[in-house]
């Protein structure tokens, strides 16, 4: 069956009278492919509106067919191929299945290639069922053929009046008119995910917006109910525009920022920012850790650090992120090269200060690694770097690092006895704290 045209099956008018569809000739594909599709059309089995199954159905199948909660759940999890057949069974299955079939249509389905534009009511009916769209560079242009693009550029896709979730892929918003942008940035939108370089012209190698039209301006004006916004790299949003947007976005609850958006870490975003990835260039700023420590709503933080030593003073600033669940710190150079002066005792205090943290990855070279061979009980978790991915492995890692801290304290005490000037009071205090915790 032609994948581009599977949407255009029986419309809702067919079921107004409550009659069954029993082997009716509803072609879901192109008329030119009717010969190849005949096997599908001729073998459509139907269940009557009185909920009586075919005479040769098993008792289990009859029970399933007579319990709406069961087959409604099945339809909600069925794939598109199954749904295309299911909606032709009867009115009840059509009513339940058609919203699932059109919830997240493919790019081909959104072209409405086989539906005449004069059938406005039918087109609006299907468009009104769409809830999620993955928007690409060709979504509302019909296809890569140049003549087809110019012929249908402005009206290739109807307005999706009930769209709630939108995902824009790379280059998908390049060279879009205001009319095209308004067909996807509709007032009903609740969630918008912007991929990397969404307005990036891959051929010209630069940002380009046709006629000065900004997708971000259109989104700000057209989406008052927006609750979640995720921005990828190269979004092209200025500090001022983002500030203006946050002042008006009264329904916004969650903001996620990928690398390259560090200039958007303003005061207004603090209670909203749940996920952040930071690039190494920005981490070179002297106040980078201080700014991060103020983003108190953060649940996910991924830091790419440059060639600079990570000290306990820097790491301790992140202890203020009490909602942190995922923390990844990795070097831009090879793993095992970048140094970290944080002691085992200090790392224990850091982890214990973040009670929600259940996913930790720190790919840095800690000085206490040299004490690992002195721990009698072998560490039974993968890798030597600080890492865990659930509460159980977190407890196991803390047990292990406590043993390292004990050895660390003993070595520091022995060294202090031999040469008191070789260790400062701060280091001894940290080691003592680690041993007391152990």
UniProtKB/TrEMBL annotation:
InterPro entries reported for this sequence: LRR_dom_sf (IPR032675)
Protein name: F-box domain-containing protein
Signal peptide coordinates: none
Basic and acidic residues: bias regions: 426-438
Region described as Disordered: spans on this chain: 19-41, 413-438
Top-level division of the source organism's lineage: Eukaryota
SUPFAM superfamilies: RNI-like (SSF52047)
């Amino acid at each position: 069956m032609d994948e581009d045209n599977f949407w255009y099956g029986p419309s809702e008018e067919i079921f107004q009278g409550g009659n069954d569809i029993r082997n009716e000739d509803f072609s879901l594909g192109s008329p030119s492919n009717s010969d190849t599709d005949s096997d599908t059309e001729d073998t459509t089995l139907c269940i009557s509106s009185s909920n009586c199954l075919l005479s040769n159905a098993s008792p289990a199948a009859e029970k399933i067919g007579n319990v709406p909660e069961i087959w409604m759940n099945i339809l909600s999890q069925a794939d598109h191929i199954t749904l295309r057949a299911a909606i032709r069974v009867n009115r009840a299955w059509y009513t339940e299945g058609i919203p699932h079939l059109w919830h997240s249509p493919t790019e081909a389905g959104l072209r409405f290639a086989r539906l005449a534009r004069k059938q406005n009511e039918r087109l609006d009916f299907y468009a009104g069922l769409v809830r999620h769209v993955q928007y690409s560079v060709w979504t509302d242009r019909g296809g890569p053929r140049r003549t087809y693009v110019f012929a249908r550029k402005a009206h290739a896709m109807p307005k999706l009046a009930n769209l709630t979730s939108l995902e824009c892929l790379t280059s998908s918003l390049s060279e879009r008119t205001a009319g095209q942008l308004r067909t996807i940035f509709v007032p009903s939108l609740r969630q918008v995910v912007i991929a990397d370089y969404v307005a990036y012209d891959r051929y010209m190698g630069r940002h380009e917006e046709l006629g000065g039209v900004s997708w971000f301006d259109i989104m700000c004006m057209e989406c008052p109910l927006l609750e979640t916004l995720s921005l990828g790299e190269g979004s092209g949003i200025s500090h001022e525009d983002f500030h203006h947007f946050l002042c008006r976005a009264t329904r916004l609850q969650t903001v996620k920022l990928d690398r390259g958006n560090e200039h958007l870490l303003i005061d207004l975003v603090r209670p909203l920012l749940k996920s952040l990835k930071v690039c190494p260039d920005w981490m070179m700023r002297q106040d980078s850790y201080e700014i991060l420590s103020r983003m108190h709503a953060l649940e996910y933080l991924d830091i790419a650090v440059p060639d600079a030593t990570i000290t306990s003073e820097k790491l301790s600033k992140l202890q203020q992120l009490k909602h942190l669940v995922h923390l990844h710190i990795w070097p831009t150079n090879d793993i095992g090269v970048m140094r970290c002066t944080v002691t085992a005792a200090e790392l224990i205090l850091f982890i214990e200060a973040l009670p929600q943290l259940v996913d930790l990855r720190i790919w840095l070279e800690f000085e206490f690694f040299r004490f690992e061979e002195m721990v009698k009980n072998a560490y039974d978790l993968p890798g030597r770097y600080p890492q865990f991915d659930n509460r159980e492995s977190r407890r196991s890692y803390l047990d292990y690092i406590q043993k390292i801290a004990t050895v660390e304290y003993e070595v520091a005490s022995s060294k202090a006895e031999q040469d008191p000037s070789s260790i400062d009071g701060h280091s001894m205090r940290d080691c003592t704290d680690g041993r007391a915790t152990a």
